[in-house]
Specification:
This protein is mainly alpha-helical and about 250 residues long. The protein is about 60% helix and about 10% strand. A two-stranded parallel ribbon has the order 1-2. Strands 3-4 form a two-stranded parallel sheet. It has a two-stranded antiparallel sheet with strand order 5-6. Helix 4 packs across helix 13. The longest helix has 23 residues. The radius of gyration is 19 Å and the shape is globular. The two termini are about 20 Å apart.
Amino acid sequence: MFDAPGYSMGLVEPVVLNDVVGWRRRGAQPAKIAAVLDMALALLARPFGDDRAVVVKPSNIVNSLAPAIMGLRADAHAILLYAPIEDFLASIAVKGLWGRRWVRQAMIGQMQDGVLAQQFAPDEMFELTDLQVAGLGWLSHHSIYRKMQDRFGAGRLGICDSRSLLAEPAETVAKFFARFELHPGPEDSAAIAAGPAFTRNSKESTSYSRSDRERQIAATREANSDEIAKVAEWVRVVADGIGLDVAPVSSALR
């Protein structure tokens, strides 16, 4: 979406940020991490041509560094994206074995980063199902989001769920760009909304639409309805116990 000449340059999951996360997990000292992260951000922030901003979509493993990134760049803004819990669980279930393995690998990383929303004893962790692990990881990202909003405020941070994001693409473009003090007119917003950001699957490079996603999610939820419903309720109970909102209002579209 943000790869829009004349407005902004979009960078998708730059490896250098993943490398900083990996370095941190291997025991790098905080002061050295901050210095290297500051240098990486300075390099990433240089737009090409006449673009006025650089917008980075990092890998989700970088979320543990997001507070540090926002702290190092007082003029930076961010939009935090999430899928509703049932949709997220369905997106993991549809990937089969590899999706379930991925969420366990992701949780290991969150444990190393010290960002799990809820701590469990080792034997309790082994008892969690694959989708419970997915739900705990999802909840841990929400915990990071809330702490960032408390620290940096709604003026610098917006949040948006995937259903709201896809509901009105042109409106999403206009509101999201405004978050970065960019203001494409109606024609440019419509052109961006009709482009690959809303019509191509970024991971598989195939055609994509809101209706395609809804059909896929609905089919997966139906095939795994019992497990998804039970795990989603479990996530809500855990969230309630630690005071987390699992369905925050999409402030990025206001």
